[in-house]
Amino acid sequence: MTDALLEVAGLCAGYDATTVLYDVDLSVRPGEFSVVIGPNGHGKTTLLRSVSGLVPARAGTVSLAGESITRMTPERITGRGLVHIPQGDLLFPDMTVLENLMLGAFLCREGRAARNRRLDGVYDVFPRLAERSAQRARTLSGGERRMLALGRGLMADAKVLMIDEPSLGLAPVLVDEVYAQISRIHATGLTILLVEENFSRVRDIADRLTLIENGSVRAAGTVDEVLRDPAVAATYLGLES
Q: Which residues form the signal peptide (predicted)?
């Protein structure tokens, strides 16, 4: 009996005639900050997309809280509490910040009071979103759009928040700010599965690393366990022994 909240076993997936993921195993425990790292184009984004139902699994299983979600639609998976924040944010540019946030709660079966409490929690983590609640999303800066994407994910009452490369396209100072906010989100007890190419960004905050190479798991474990392999440390993480 596994104690994982999210369990991926033998996952194979891809696009049309191309297979991208081969027999991927991944386990995320409740409250864990789990990070998937690896070179560009080796399957990290496809992994998140397959887990969230956007790319159908060709083989293997995905389970959330002991329930198989392998063949569920993305809407049902989100409704179960597995929330995917993709690359590029994918906001509704002509809707306001508040409207984008409230759409995050669209699948939640709860009353207005509960949604408003969650909105207050989002504004507590991202005060700038409260200041810009009436602004259209397209008028926000890159960092603010990233905050809005994260806030919309929090509005969905997530059990697991999957975040795909939050540093992508941001200036270093904004990356620091976004990661500080992600750390605040994790500190509330939320389970996070995050994809990141830059190991230095996650070295001090990851509970567990999974290294993907050519669509397969090259290494997995705690940061210290993964770093014990000098070839992995030097080749993939840019560290010298």
A: none
Domain boundaries, the chain: 6-235
13: which strand partners?
21, 57
* Sign of the torsion formed by the C-alpha atoms of 88, 134, 159 and 175: positive
* Among the four given CATH numbers 3.10.20.310, 3.40.50.740, 3.40.1390.10, 3.40.50.300, the one describing domain 6-235: 3.40.50.300
CA separation for the pair 96, 162 (Å, rounded): 24
Structural tokens at position 10: 């033998």
Alpha helices in the chain (DSSP H): 44-51, 74-80, 97-104, 112-125, 127-131, 142-154, 172-187, 199-202, 223-227, 230-235
DSSP state of 139: G
What phi, psi does 217 have (nearest 5°)?
A: -80, 115
36, two tokens: 């998937």
Dihedral (CA of 225, 229, 235, 238) sign? positive
